[in-house]
Amino acid sequence: MNLASAWRRMAFVILIASATIVRAQQPLSVRQIAPGNFAHRGHDDVATPANGGDIANVGFVVGTRCVAVIDTGGTLAEGRALRAAIRAVTPLPVCYVINTHMHPDHIFGNAAFRDDHPQFVGSAKLAQAEAARADNYLRALNRELGAAAAGSEIVAPTRTIDGIGTLDLGGRKLTLRTWKTAHTNNDLTVYDEKSGTLWTGDLLFAGCMPVVDGSVVGWLDDIARIRQMNPRHVVPGHGPLDPPWPQTLDAEQRYLADLARDVRAAIKKGETIQRAVDSIGLDERRKWLLYDVYHRRNVTAAYAELEWEQ
To answer: Looking at the 3D structure of the chain, how many domains does it have?
Structure first.
């Protein structure tokens, strides 16, 4: 690399780092989707330096006593911007930081809230899942985002939920529930009883391709139970905030049910996993954002799960 090229590369790195600092100093854009419930819509994309890893829906719920954060974003910078958004709404302390599951776009902003001394809340399976992938997640984050990933780290839960738990924010009770292995093995939802708002994490994808990193069978079982909750407002893990209910859940259920059906049929016919990946769900491309990124992975995951089904 010649000197001119080296200077250009250094200038690019400085530019990205500067943009990250500016982004961290500006409040994250949020929308009040129901009284006391504020959500930010992430980009419908994979993590890139241009979007700063801001690809998941995150937000917070405000009570009369304190605030609960629900997922913190894909970087320390995004977490700081979310914290700034909270401060623009209320001076109340942040008493809880809730992570709906282990994926990087939902957890790497946690450290921005460390000085608030909240309880970090997640599934009883969250810490182990994070630890198992921590090194890979950090390497990928730095590879994908470069300087925008600066300072990002995993903060493990200090309070865990196994089944159902409640958090009192003062005049507003949140019900937290863990689920059968589905999107991951550590999925958790948050329901604000006062407004009827359900924060689903990645148990619900709105318009974006659902990603199977757990069990397609378990996910279908969970969807049947989520449907019974019949919330008035919904914050999905990805896609438009407060999308039509239950139509958005219907679309996800149809995709996953068709995936399971077609993979079972391929296995029964003796098709190889490669043949299944190359042939199943081709007509889904026009229905989902990020189809080309995740659908083939879903077929692979479903085949590996269902191949040994009795």
So the answer is: 1
Q: Look up residue 152 and give its DSSP letter.
A: -
Positive/negative CA dihedral, 278, 281, 286, 290 = negative
Residue 39 pairs with which residues in a beta bridge? 31, 59
> What is d(CA 27, CA 268) in angstroms, rounded to the nearest whole number?
53
3-state secondary structure of 22: helix
Helix, strand or coil for residue 37? strand
Helices 216-227 and 291-306: crossing angle in degrees, nearest 10, is 110
Domain coverage including residue 17: 3-306
Q: Which two tokens stand for residue 117?
A: 């001394």
pTM of this prediction exceeds 0.70: yes
Q: Are strands 67-70 and 58-62 parallel, antiparallel or unpaired?
A: antiparallel
Give me the CATH number covering residue 283.
3.60.15.10
Q: What is the pLDDT of residues 68-118, one digit of tens each?
A: 999 999 999 999 999 999 999 999 999 999 999 999 999 999 999 999 999
